[in-house]
C-alpha cells in the first residue's frame, strides 16, 4: 500500500525573490588568527524565517550584525533586496532592517510609547502619526495600548518587554528583521507562548527574518529553513527542519541534532497528511485533530494507553484513525 507523502506542519519556505544575500563575506577581528566569519555565502528569500543555528562562538551574532552593518565586513558583499548595502549609509540601512536582541535594550527612562516611537520620530513623522503607529504596533504584539503606552520598561515582565522590543523593531515597517536570541532570556512557558505568538504575527506580516539561536527545538519550530553553522560561520547545512532531521549532511550535524531526531521529526508531520485507517466504532479512547502533529497523536495514545487514536476533522467529526504502527512507518531512520 502506498501512502501519500507526509507534509510538514511548518509553513513551506516561500519561493519568493531573494531579500538578503551574503556573498563571500569574511569578518576578521583584530588580533584573531581565525576569521569569526570566513567566506560565507547565504541567501534569504522574501518572507521566510531563516534560523542561524550552531555552537557557541561559531559566529552567529557576528553574521547577524554584518547584515545591518553594526559590524563591517573585512571582505565580501551584502545585498538587501538586490542592492549592495556594503557602502550604503548605515543609519538608513538600519531603518530598513528591524533589530531585536535578547536583553531587549529598551530605554529605561522612556515610556513604552516613546520607546516604540523612536524610529518614526527620527524619521520626522508628526506626533499624531507616531501615536497612531505606536498604538497599532502595541496592539499587533498583543499589548493593550491603553494599559501599556504610558508605562516604563521596569513595570513590564520580561515577556512583555520582549513584545515591546519586537514592536519597536517593526515601527518603520522594515522589510527585514534580525533577531538575536530573542526568546533566550525567558522562562520556558513564556518562551513557548511568545514563539507561538511570533509565528502568528509573522503569518500576518510576512517579514524576511534572520534569527539566531543555539536551541535546536526553537530552530525547528520557527525556521522555514535552518542554516547550521560550524566554527568560522562555515555553512554546514542549509535546509528545511524536516530535511535536516531526516538527512543530516554530515557527522557534525548528526551530532548536533543528536539522539531524538526521529522523535523531533514527529512534531513536523501532520496527522492528516498520512494515510488514515477507517475510524473505529464506539467512543474513542484517544482523539487528535487532523492538523495536530504525529507527536501529539502519539502523546494522546500514550496517555490513553491506546494503540490507535481517532482523527477529528475541523468540525470535530471522526475522519479516520491513526495507529502506532502507521506512525512508526512515517519515521525513517536518519542516515548515519
Ligand atoms: N568584538 C570582538 N573582538 C574580537 N573577537 C570577537 C569579537 N566579537 C566576537 N569575537 C569572536 O568571534 C567569534 C564569533 O563570535 P560570535 O559572537 O559571532 O559567536 P556566536 O556564535 O554568536 O556565539 P554565542 O552563541 O556564544 O553568542 C568568537 O570566537 C568570538 O570570541
Automatic annotation (TrEMBL):
Domain of life: Bacteria
Family: Belongs to the ABC transporter superfamily.
Pfam families assigned: ABC_tran (PF00005)
Name the record gives this protein: ABC-type quaternary amine transporter
Ranges for domain CBS: 276-336
E.C. number(s) listed in UniProt: 7.6.2.9
Species per Swiss-Prot/TrEMBL record: Actinomadura coerulea
Entry keyword set: ATP-binding, CBS domain, Nucleotide-binding, Transport
Domain ABC transporter: 20-256
PROSITE patterns recorded: ABC_TRANSPORTER_1, ABC_TRANSPORTER_2, CBS
A GO term, aspect molecular function: ATP binding
Annotated SUPFAM superfamilies: CBS-domain pair (SSF54631), P-loop containing nucleoside triphosphate hydrolases (SSF52540)
